[in-house]
Write a structure and sequence with these properties.
It contains four helices and nine strands, in the order βαβαβββββαββα. By secondary structure, the chain is of the alpha+beta class. It has a single domain (4-125), classed as Small Protein B, Chain: A (Beta Barrel). The strands form two sheets. A seven-stranded antiparallel β-sheet has the order 1-8-9-2-7-5-4. The chain has a two-stranded antiparallel sheet with strand order 3-6. The longest helix is centred in the C-terminal third of the chain and has 26 residues, at 127-152.
Amino acid sequence: MAVEVVATNRRARHEYHIIDTVEAGIVLRGPEVKSVRAHRVSLAEAYAAVEEGEVWLHNMHIARYRAVGHAPQDPTRRRKLLLHKRQIRRLEREVRQKGVTLIPLRMYFSPGGYAKVELGLCRGKREYDKRESMKRRDEERRAQRAIADHQRGR
C-alpha cells in the first residue's frame, strides 16, 4: 500500500535550503481528519516550533468540515506533533542556530492510516540562491526537452 500525499509545500523548496527531514505524527480532531482526507489542507504559511519540550505546528490551514454544524472549528489552530524526546531535543538544538526553522514539507497518510507531517529543518535562501536554483531547473528542463526531441528524431 502506498503513501497518500494530501498536501505539499512547494514554496518551501524554493524559499529554503532543506538540511534534514523528520517524519512526525499529528494530533487532529475528528472533523479535521475528514477535511484532510478530502485534501482541504494548506501548508503555505505553516511552520513548526519547539515549545516546552513539545513540537507544535502553527498556521497550517485545514478547511472546516461542512457536515459538522454545531462544533466551532478554528482552521489555523496550532496542532501538536508527535515525536520521540530524542528527536525533539535534536530539533531544539538545531533550531537554536541562527536562521534555522522547522517547515512542514508535506502531509500524508501512512499505510497504517495515520496522518503524518514531513518536517524539514531549513535555512532560508538568499535572493541569489533562488535565482541560481531557478536557472539550474530551467537548464535541466531544457536538457530533458532536447533529449526527448532527439529521441523522437526531430
